[in-house]
Design goal:
InterPro entries: Acyl_CoA_acyltransferase, BioF2-like_GNAT_dom. This is GNAT family N-acetyltransferase. It is a single chain. This protein is an alpha+beta fold. The chain has two domains: 190 residues, Aminopeptidase (3-Layer(aba) Sandwich), CATH 3.40.630; 147 residues, Gcn5-related N-acetyltransferase (GNAT) (Aminopeptidase). The chain is 39% helix and 28% strand. β1 and β2 form a beta hairpin. α2 crosses α7 and α5 packs across α8.
Length: 368
């Protein structure tokens, strides 16, 4: 086992690779989450960290021991020069440490023992007391509660958005009438459908001027790895909407027993007038409720459809823990001006719309 040991006050920290965590470590990790009352978010599960460890060579986990027993886990990735990021940075929708209740930790001291000059986060979950004081922004992350059943949810949806549900159902009927029979598959293992989804998503990223995540081999490998997983606490879930036997929309998410995270949705633009992505999400919520899912986490980031479907918001945080020194200065120079500019644009809706149009034009020119 590759590890480094250091004493921090009364806690001993071992830094290991995700693959070095034992079955007991996985159990303790999950017990800590459950005992603390944290939601079973699959991104905060050890299986997600282990999967990232298979595709990211710089993935590490700091294991905190007290009196010889593990009391916490801090998964991260280490870049140069000592710049830390969350495990699976770029695709992780929930981030932070897993600490037994009552454990207090100094964030900068933890970074020192992990040989990090900084640790940047953009989806830090609420309740992360070592890191929240270092947040630069608090963001809303919409969720859909379906634990009381789909019928109860749609009753609530009708009250909050009287015309929205009618419009989505009308689009679904129109799709069936003009294209062909509509069929929905909630938990598909069709690798061809997954490949189609990734192609749609790549095209969407390029079209909107955003970085194509699926152009990065490690992300494609991670998704394929999670798609093959059977771990009930953290595995991929592919949902596909068909019309006349042809896939028109799909979503690949990450799920546990009770939480389904909305991750990679996309649709065939040929059928855009039928809003197949909205139809798929509605049918996915119905199937998730029947499958025992209590919460569908739509993730942070502005989107009109999320506001229509959501039942409430979670709070997540963006920011960074930075240690004094050259490495911390490099982080500040590389990230903080860009974050300040992004916040300036986001807080001004008209400017944000202009920025989105500019990105779309960049994407259009790139695809010529």
């Amino acid at each position: 086992m590759t590890q480094e040991a250091t004493d921090v006050s009364e806690k001993r920290i071992l830094v290991v690779r995700p693959g070095d965590l034992s079955t007991d470590d996985h159990k303790i990790w999950r017990d800590i989450r459950a005992e603390g009352g944290a939601p079973a978010n699959p991104f905060m599960d050890p299986a997600f960290t282990a999967a990232v460890g298979q595709v990211r060579s710089r993935a590490r986990v700091a294991v905190l021991h007290e009196d010889g027993h593990p009391v916490g886990y801090f998964p991260y990735e280490r870049g140069l020069p000592g710049r830390g990021r969350p495990i699976g940075a770029g695709v992780s929708d929930s981030q932070g440490a897993v600490l037994r209740r009552g454990i207090r930790l100094d964030a900068r001291r933890l970074l020192r023992e992990c040989r990090l000059s900084s640790w940047e986060f953009d989806n830090l979950e609420a309740g992360q007391h070592p890191f929240v004081p270092h947040a630069a922004e608090e963001l809303a992350s919409p969720v859909v509660d379906v634990g009381e059943g789909f019928e109860r949810y749609t009753e609530r949806l009708r009250r909050s958005s009287p015309s929205f549900l009618k419009q989505v159902l009308a689009k679904e009927r129109k799709l069936a009438r003009q294209v062909g029979e509509v069929r929905f598959e909630y938990d598909s293992r069709d690798s061809d459908a997954l490949g189609t989804l990734m192609r749609w998503k790549s095209a969407q990223y390029r079209r909107t001027g955003r970085r194509d995540r699926f152009a990065q081999e490690w992300i494609t490998r991670l998704v394929e790895l999670l798609a093959r997983s059977d771990d009930p606490d953290c595995r991929g879930a592919l949902s596909v909407l068909y019309a006349a036997g042809r896939p028109v929309a799909a979503h690949f998410g990450l799920r546990s027993h009770t939480v389904l995270s909305w991750w990679f949705p996309a649709y065939d633009r040929e059928f855009g007038k039928y809003s197949p992505g909205l139809v798929l999400l509605l049918r996915m919520l119905e199937a998730a409720a029947a499958d025992g899912i209590g919460t569908v986490d739509l993730g942070s980031g502005p989107a009109r459809y999320k506001e229509s479907f959501k039942t409430r918001d979670l709070r997540v945080y963006e920011g960074a823990v930075v240690r004094p020194g050259p490495g911390g200065a490099v982080h500040w120079l590389g990230r903080e001006p860009a974050r300040t500019a992004r916040r300036f644009v986001r807080d001004r809706p008209r400017l944000a719309r202009t920025a989105r149009r500019a990105l779309a034009e960049v994407g259009r020119l790139r695809d010529r």
